[in-house]
Design a protein that fits this description.
single chain; alpha/beta; Rossmann fold; 10 helices; 41% helix
Amino acid sequence: MSPYPRPRWLVTGASGMLGRELTSLLVRRGAAVTALGRGALDLTNDAAVRSALARHRPAVVVNCAAWTAVDAAESEPSRAMAVNGDGPRHLAQACRALGAVLLQLSTDYVFAGSAGRPYREDDPTGPRTVYGCTKRAGERAVLDILPEAGYVVRTAWLYGAGGPNFVATMIRLEAEQDTVPVVDDQHGQPTWTADLADRLAALGSAALAGTAPAGIYHATNTGGTTWYTLARETFRLLGADPGRVRPTTSLALARPATRPGYSVLDQPRWREAGLEPLRNWHTALAEAFPTLCEAVGRPVPRLR
């Protein structure tokens, strides 16, 4: 009898917002899961990665670990590349040796952010930040090393109960400030970690079953909005006046790293693989909202 009657999953970056969500979901569904946070596995250490995978022998690896400090990456490119570029390469090489599937999380920042329509999975990339360049390097490593078992899953604008995020910040600021300035010239898709975790689990299972082809998948809650409109919707769900959110520009809130002006992602590959894409962001946010309020210590409002 096989020592692994159930396909074993290994989640890296398991102490982060998405990693915790995915690990919890897999455990609830009865999967055999190894969850490794940064302290348990240093992805920049090739020998450590090979040793960890040889020891745990997963069938599916989901890499939720990343350098996500977008601005800091501009001044520390080598450190960002070690995590976002070298880390996925080490994982891909170890997965190839083991015969495992790898799901690599990536980002909308691999695109230039100047499109006039939603980006498709096969559109040319053109990152304008160090962070985006390092994430693209990780994508290429996975696709090159694992052409039949490597899955790049691009997502964006994540929020959830397990870590700091924009929606949680808006919930907090509503109680602290009379007005809140928010940029209205960056277009994207707010994505609930619970919805993304569900699709990662579905994609990994389909990959093992041989029904989902390897390659690039976009995974965001559908529809598009701006940070300003998302903040207004957050205030509305709190029962607060959305007019307290004031529009501003990216230029007025200049940061070291340029933010994409437009990074809405189209996602036809889900249906091509026989899987449902993520639902609309409005619906997801409304369902997530009670959990988000509880996470920051706010009572859940009752809307009229």
